[in-house]
Design brief:
Radius of gyration: 29 Å
Helix content: 25-40%
Shape: globular
Order of helices and strands: HEEHHEHEEEEEEEHEEH
Number of helices: 6
Largest sheet: 6 strands, mixed
Strand content: 35-45%
Structural class: alpha+beta
Distance between the termini: 116 Å
Length: 304
């Protein structure tokens, strides 16, 4: 006798239901496995540099605005003309001479920045990676994109002594630190630094707020700091600290950090930094401040 069609349908339904349940269990198990692997990957993943959080408050909170002006290497304005209006006397004389020997120059623009400078600073074509961050006093920070060289060779000059150095897989960076300065200004210190060599990954333990320990991989390269070539000035919210390279071609640190000639379009960089305490505005200019004599002379020269 043939099997009842209703019995066959019931068996088929039960079989399909069982298959569906089995598939669901496998998928759920896969989800659980994937989630566990994701958590493990996060714990062992490369830790990225911590960015200052927005909304930093307190007596030591500061705002830092930074940008890199990028122009062709042959640009005469950034290379020469602008510096006639920069107050390089803000840098101590001995430090200024040491910077110049290593292809660097620095100074302040304030009160009424030149319109050509502001045009470059606000143009999307020439202002590279502009950013405004919130951080704290005495907290070192590297806000500028690194200038990378597969092989880097330059000469360090200290008085009559020259030291030729060479690094591979080099990343030229700048470390910025602020502390209280005179006349309610902020003392800004900018140090050239270098990361080089193969990337290393070092495991270390981290304990979160709930006391749970996990392992992370810290990304690290060998590092050099050139404290002897630090730029240190007191900066008001209406002032701009600018750091550039001299026009001397060659193998100086300034040329290595602020120019790139191993590309189809050689370029020159100018670092621009502004800082203010929490609650202070980064003023574009001070309308009531007297214009620098050099700027007045330029305006008189250009006036019809």
């Amino acid at each position: 006798m043939g099997e009842n069609p209703f019995t066959m349908s019931a068996r088929m339904f039960i079989a399909r239901l069982g298959l569906l349940l089995l598939t669901s269990l496998v998928v759920c198990a896969g989800c659980m496995h994937t989630r566990e692997n994701d958590n493990q990957a996060k714990s062992w993943g490369v830790r990225r540099p911590t960015m200052p959080l927005s909304g930093v408050e307190g007596a030591d909170a500061i705002t830092m605005a930074v940008s890199v002006i990028e122009v062709p290497l042959t640009d005469n304005y950034i290379g020469q003309e602008l510096w006639a209006l920069v107050d390089e006397q803000a840098v101590p004389l001995e430090a200024k001479a040491n910077l110049a020997a290593n292809g660097l120059r620095a100074g302040l623009l304030g009160g009424h920045p030149p319109s050509d400078f502001l045009a470059l600073l606000t143009s999307e074509k020439t202002s590279v990676a502009p950013r405004q961050i919130q951080t704290r006093l005495a907290q070192p920070y590297s806000p500028f994109p690194a200038l990378k060289h597969e092989t880097l060779h330059f000469t360090l000059r200290d008085g009559d002594q020259d030291e030729s150095v060479e690094f591979s897989k080099a990343q030229c960076q700048w470390e910025v630190t602020c502390k209280p300065g005179e006349d309610r200004k902020l003392a800004v210190k900018v140090v050239p630094m270098l990361r080089h060599g193969e990337m290393l990954f070092e495991p270390h333990s981290v304990t979160d707020a709930e006391g749970v320990m996990s392992w992370q991989l810290a990304q690290r390269q060998e590092q050099e700091k050139y404290e002897g070539l630090a730029v240190e000035v007191d900066l008001a919210p209406s002032e701009y600290l600018v750091i550039g390279s001299t026009n001397k071609p060659g193998d100086s640190l300034g040329s290595s950090w602020l120019t790139q000639i191993d590309t189809e379009r050689p370029v020159r960089h100018l670092l621009v930094i502004r800082v203010a305490r929490h609650g202070q505005a980064l003023k574009a200019s001070a309308p009531d401040a007297p214009k620098p004599l050099a700027l007045q002379a330029q305006e008189q020269t250009l006036s019809p």
